[in-house]
Amino acid sequence: MNVFENAPFDDDSPDLAEIINATAAGVWTFNVSTKKAIWSLGFYKCLGYEPGEIECSHVNFVENLLYHEDKNAFLASVKNSNAADVQAIHIRLLTKTGYEWFQSTTYKHAGSIISGTLINVHSYKLRLLQAAAVNSAMTATTSLAKLAGWEMNAISKKLFLSNEALEILQLQRTEITTELFLNFIDPADRTALHTALEACLQTGRPFDLNVRLRTLRNSAFWVRIKAVAIINDLGECQMVKGILQDIHLTKHREDELIAILNTFSDQNSRLQNFTHIAAHNLRSYVGNLQSMINLHEESGCPDEREKIFTQIKKSGNNLNFTIEHLNEIAKIDFEASKEKTLIDLEAFFKNVIDVLQSTVQASQAIISSDFTCCPSVYYLPAYLESIFHNLLSNALKYSHPDRVPIIHCESKMEDDRVYLTVEDNGLGIDLEKYGHKVFGMYQTFHTHDTAQGIGLFITRNQVEAMGGNIYIESAVDVGTKFTIMLV
């Protein structure tokens, strides 16, 4: 088939039709007036056919060979084509083996003739699409991982930031000084990062650090900064390249996990302590009861049997108290999982004083409080009532006989934590001698008819079950001060 059979060539000119037909490119013409289409041999070859295997017509091309989603683009290129400004578009055509990508160009000639070319670009297009897919996947992965790139010039010490880095830092400029960047870093981590940067510049040593960062909008979070040195043939650092990653959520979850593990560890420690105490105390009571029962059975004297029986009843009552105490301790971790409520410290403190009013009046105690620093706290009401009650009742119980009891309670905030202090001028405790026993079970350090040595043990377990701590300062004949870190 000769596409340009009527083209005027000199005898010395090559046959352009032969050249076109010999190429893998397809050439077509279409007469708008007569609706006649002509396809070159290359056109058929591009589609994988021989002439005559498929109908050579404009309708067949547009309706059957051209992929439906590319129809509008192709027809628009035909309509807008002109000889002065030829534009190529990519379309999909149905070849003998399936749809493939082609580059299409269209030319509008004088009169009613339109011509065009087709070049198979399927492999090239697939590589482009694959590269775009990889780039899209990398962009998505980078976005999900919150990764950003940065570079630092070894001579000017200026940082060049990627768009992702600008987003993390909440900046507008793509270039900043190292000093400005370091100002974003928390002072506690700034020296370590500066040292790592200098080592990377001087010796090429890479680094990978987790640091706290604060943006211009005062947003604080954790980031990971990783870098490697780019050196020349002489081993001199020319540039430092690295990544910046927002790891705040990961770090937060890591801290939460550590806190959970610490809680489990504390609970396990308390459980082991509780098990030891329960086993020891119950074994002691049971052994004592068994011994007295044996004495009661062996004794033939009625008076002696009566005395032994009285001791048996007393031991039984003590055993009952011990079981009640152990049951109260066993419930601590279970109760700690209940929902906290916002507690007005002043009102709550006064309620506890009202419960102890008879003891307060009898001792003529002077009790004061100051909760202005932290007026309220989220806590378990039952626990806070128990803490106040135990510490106040102890201060009243162990008041100094030579002076009026003075008790003061106040709240304070330190490092976003709430603290309570309860201070008295009572008998005090020799901490050098008894400090390791103060919060133990059934530990008493002064003679008192109602002393059981259980209050501080329960208070410590309640405080620790809520994630806090309790501390004691005391001096004999001076007084005692308890400090409780609530949350």
Instruction: Determine and state the CATH class of the largest domain.
Output: Alpha Beta
- Oligomerization state: single chain
Pairing-aware structural class of the strands and helices?
alpha+beta
- Shape type: elongated
- CATH topology of the largest domain, which one? Heat Shock Protein 90
Fourth-level CATH superfamily of the largest domain: Histidine kinase-like ATPase, C-terminal domain
Report the C-alpha radius of gyration, rounded. 44 Å
Poorly predicted residue ranges: 1-13, 137-145
* Beta content: 25-35%
Cα(first) to Cα(last) distance is 91 Å
- With strands numbered from the N-terminus, the spatial order across the biggest sheet is 8-7-6-11-10-9
Report the sheet with the most strands, covering strand number, pairing sense and barrel closure: 6 strands, antiparallel
CATH A-level architecture of the largest domain: 2-Layer Sandwich
Number of structural domains: 4
Q: Which percent bin holds the helix content? A: 40-55%
The number of distinct β-strands equals 18
Q: Average the pLDDT over all residues and give the rounded result.
A: 78
Tally of helical segments: 16
